[in-house]
Design a protein that fits this description.
It is a single chain. This protein has helices at 2-8, 42-55, 77-86, 99-105, 114-136, 143-167, 188-204, 219-231, 233-237, 242-256, 309-317, 342-346, 445-459, 464-478, 490-501, 507-513, 550-555; strands at residues 28-29, 67-68, 92-94, 170-172, 184-186, 293-297, 338-340, 361-362, 364-365, 368-369, 375-376, 379-380, 385-386, 395-396, 398-399, 440-444. With 565 residues, the protein is mainly alpha-helical. A two-stranded antiparallel ribbon has the order 1-2. Helix 6 (143-167) runs antiparallel to helix 7.
Length: 565
C-alpha cells in the first residue's frame, strides 16, 4: 500500500508538521510553480502535484503550505471544505473557541473571516497548479498524456465546482490565459456552463480511463462530478437538470451492477468504507466488485501526511471525555473539538438496527457536585449540550465517529478489531499514529443512488419505483428497514442523505438545494446566531452563499460582492 501511494504522488516524501491551530490571517497565495518542466519526470511529478494539492497543505509536509496566513493544518484543502460544509449545518458543532471556525459554526461570518480567505485562495492555488500542468503539456498528443491531462482537468473542475458551490461568483482563469494575466470574475451560471462543457467532453468522449490506477480519478469520478453538478443545477444556473442528473447516475450504476451488496456495486459493509484498508474500495482498488468510492483522495501515514483529510476527522471527533481512548481508532491525536448536535442524533432515533452510527458514543453526564456544594444525579444528554464553555471544558452532545485509522477484521458479519477483552477492558494494542492511512471519499456510489431518488422527488423525473428501490438499497446495506412510498419525500430523502453521507462534506449544499438552509423553511438549529445560544436563531438568507473575501475585493475592485455582505 505504501509503495503504491509513494508512486502516485511522484515519489515526494512528506515529513512531519507541528500544529493544528489558527494562525495569523494575512493571507496571500504562494507561487505554485513547484516542478521544473525540464525535468524528464516532469509530467508524472506535475500531475502528482494536482492530486497532492487536494491531499496535503504543501510540498514539504504538513508543516508547510501553499497558502500563507493560516497555519498549514487549518489551510489543508479537504479540511477547509469540511469546515465550510459541515459546521454551518445541522450535523456538527466545533467546540473550540477559535474565532474563525466558531463564526462558521454559528453562521455569523463576515467577508473578513480568515478561513473564508483561506478557502478561496486554496481553491485558486489548486486551479493554478492544474492550469500550469495543462499549459506545459498542451503539445503532448500521445494517449498517455491525453489521459493524464483529462485527470488534471477533472481535478481542476472539482475546485471550480467547490468555488461556485461555496461562493457563487468565481475568480476564473484557464491554461489558455496569457502569461501574467489576472483571473476575471465570472457568474455562477457562467462557470456552471463551463463545467458542464468541460466534464461532458471528458466523459462522453471517454478520454479518461474507465479503469484508473489506484488513487487516480477515472470515468466514474468524472461522471459522478457531472451528476453532482446537474443535481445542483437549479441553484447554480437557475434551471433544474434533474433528468440529466438521473441519466448520469444510471450510466454509473450500470457500470457497477453485479458485484457487492445485492449486486448493486455498493460495498457489503458500510463502515469499512472509512477504515484503514478502504483503499480496496477506491478507484483502481483491489476489490473491483465493491469499488464504491468513485472519486477519492489517497492518504498514507508515512508518505501522504496532512492535518486535513481523515487524520483531521479522526483526531477531531474522538475524545476521551466520552470514554473513547484514541488507541481504539489507531490515532495518537485526540483533539476533542467536534461533537454531533441534537438534530443529527435525532435522525437516528428509532433506527436501532442501522449500523451507520455504530461507532458513535452518546454522552452521559455522571453524577457529581456543583460549585455551590449541591449534588446532582447522572443525566443522559446524548441529544443536547450541557454547560457549553468552549475548549476542553465542553460537555454534552455525541461523539460522532465514522472514520477510523484501524482495520476491520475478516469476520463474516463485518466485525471490527476494536472489541473489548474478556475481562471487559479495551484492547489497546493496536498501533496508533499521528496520521491516518485511511483514504477520503469525495463521491461514492451510494450518493449516486440517492441522487437519482432526489431527482424524482424534486424534479418529478424518472421512475417512481426505481427511485424507491434505490433509496432502499442504501438503507438495507445499513441494516435499516425499507422506506415505503410515504417516505419518498423531500424530508425523507434529506434525512437519508444525512444518515448516509454525514462527515462527507455534502450537508450544506444539500440543505441549500432543498431550501432548508436559510429562510422560512429552515428549522432552527442549536447555536446558530451565537455560540452561547443553545436554542439558536434563524440563519440569514444571505448565508446561502459565503461572501467573496474582502481581501479579494480589495485586490480586484472590479469584482462584485455577493448580496447582503
Amino acid at each position: 500500500m505504501n509503495l503504491k501511494k509513494y508512486l502516485i504522488y511522484g515519489g515526494v516524501a512528506l515529513g512531519l508538521g507541528l500544529t493544528s491551530c489558527v494562525g495569523d490571517l494575512d493571507l496571500e497565495p504562494n507561487d505554485p510553480n513547484l516542478v521544473n518542466p525540464n525535468d524528464p519526470n516532469y509530467k508524472v511529478n506535475s500531475l502528482a502535484m494536482c492530486y497532492s494539492g487536494i491531499a496535503v497543505s504543501g510540498i514539504n509536509g504538513p508543516g508547510d503550505s501553499y497558502v500563507s496566513g493560516l497555519d498549514p493544518g487549518t489551510s489543508a484543502y479537504l479540511r477547509l471544505i469540511f469546515t465550510l460544509s459541515e459546521f454551518c449545518s445541522d450535523e456538527l458543532i466545533w467546540i473550540w473557541p477559535d474565532a474563525g471556525v466558531s463564526d462558521i459554526t454559528s453562521c455569523t461570518w463576515s467577508s473578513t473571516n480568515g478561513l473564508l480567505e483561506g478557502v478561496y485562495y486554496r481553491l485558486l492555488g489548486h486551479i493554478a497548479i492544474c492550469n500550469q500542468y495543462l499549459a506545459n503539456t498542451a503539445g503532448d498528443t500521445d494517449a498517455e498524456s491525453q489521459q493524464m491531462r483529462a485527470e488534471a482537468r477533472v481535478l481542476r473542475a472539482y475546485s471550480y465546482y467547490n468555488m461556485i458551490d461555496l461562493f457563487g461568483q468565481s475568480s476564473f482563469i484557464t491554461e489558455e490565459a496569457a502569461t501574467g494575466a489576472a483571473p476575471v470574475q465570472k457568474s455562477r451560471k457562467e462557470v456552471f456552463e463551463w463545467l458542464e462543457k468541460e466534464l461532458t467532453d471528458i466523459v462522453d468522449n471517454k478520454i479518461i480511463s474507465e479503469t484508473p490506477i489506484y488513487g487516480r480519478v477515472g470515468l466514474d469520478g468524472a461522471e459522478a462530478l457531472l451528476a453532482r453538478l446537474y443535481l445542483n443545477a437549479e441553484v447554480f444556473s437557475g434551471t433544474g437538470r434533474w433528468e440529466d442528473c438521473q441519466k448520469r447516475c444510471e450510466n454509473i450504476i450500470a457500470r457497477h451492477r453485479g458485484g457487492g451488496f445485492e449486486g448493486s456495486g455498493l460495498a457489503n459493509h458500510y463502515l469499512y468504507l472509512f477504515s484503514r484498508d478502504n483503499e480496496k474500495y477506491m478507484p483502481g482498488g483491489g476489490n473491483k466488485a465493491e469499488n464504491e468510492i468513485l472519486f477519492g483522495i489517497a492518504f498514507d501515514a508515512e508518505m501522504t501526511q496532512s492535518y486535513g483529510g481523515p487524520s483531521f476527522i479522526i483526531a477531531s471527533t474522538i475524545t476521551n471525555s466520552h470514554y473513547i481512548p484514541r488507541q481504539l481508532y489507531g490515532c495518537s491525536g485526540e483533539w476533542s473539538c467536534i461533537r454531533g448536535c441534537y438534530e443529527m442524533a435525532e435522525r437516528f432515533y428509532g433506527h436501532d438496527t442501522d449500523v451507520r452510527d455504530d461507532l458513535w458514543v452518546r454522552g452521559v453526564k455522571p453524577a457529581g457536585t456543583n460549585a455551590d456544594g449541591t449534588s446532582y444525579d447522572a443525566e443522559d444528554y446524548s441529544d443536547r449540550f450541557i454547560d457549553f464553555t468552549g475548549a476542553w471544558a465542553t460537555t454534552g452532545g455525541n461523539a460522532i465517529i465514522k472514520f477510523t485509522g484501524r482495520t476491520p477484521n475478516a469476520a463474516a458479519d463485518g466485525g471490527w478489531d476494536m472489541s473489548q477483552n474478556a475481562d471487559g477492558t479495551w484492547n489497546l494494542g493496536f498501533p496508533s499514529t499521528p496520521f491516518a492511512s485511511t483514504d477520503q471519499p469525495i463521491i461514492r456510489l451510494a450518493d449516486v443512488y440517492l441522487m437519482y431518488s432526489e431527482c424524482y422527488v424534486n424534479g418529478g423525473t424518472g421512475d417512481r419505483q426505481k427511485a424507491l428501490d434505490y433509496v432502499n438499497i442504501v438503507r438495507r446495506r445499513a441494516g435499516a428497514a425499507n422506506y415505503g412510498f410515504a417516505q419518498l419525500t423531500k424530508k425523507g430523502i434529506m434525512d437519508e442523505r444525512s444518515r448516509e453521507l454525514y462527515l462527507e462534506s455534502t450537508r450544506r449544499s444539500d440543505l441549500v438545494r432543498n431550501g432548508m438552509f436559510a429562510g422560512p423553511s429552515q428549522t432552527v438549529w442549536q447555536y446558530k446566531g451565537s455560540m452561547s445560544n443553545n436554542a439558536g436563531t434563524r440563519i440569514a438568507e444571505r448565508n446561502n452563499l459565503y461572501p467573496i473575501p474582502q481581501a479579494v475585493i480589495a485586490a480586484q475592485p472590479d469584482f462584485k460582492q455577493n448580496p447582503g455582505y
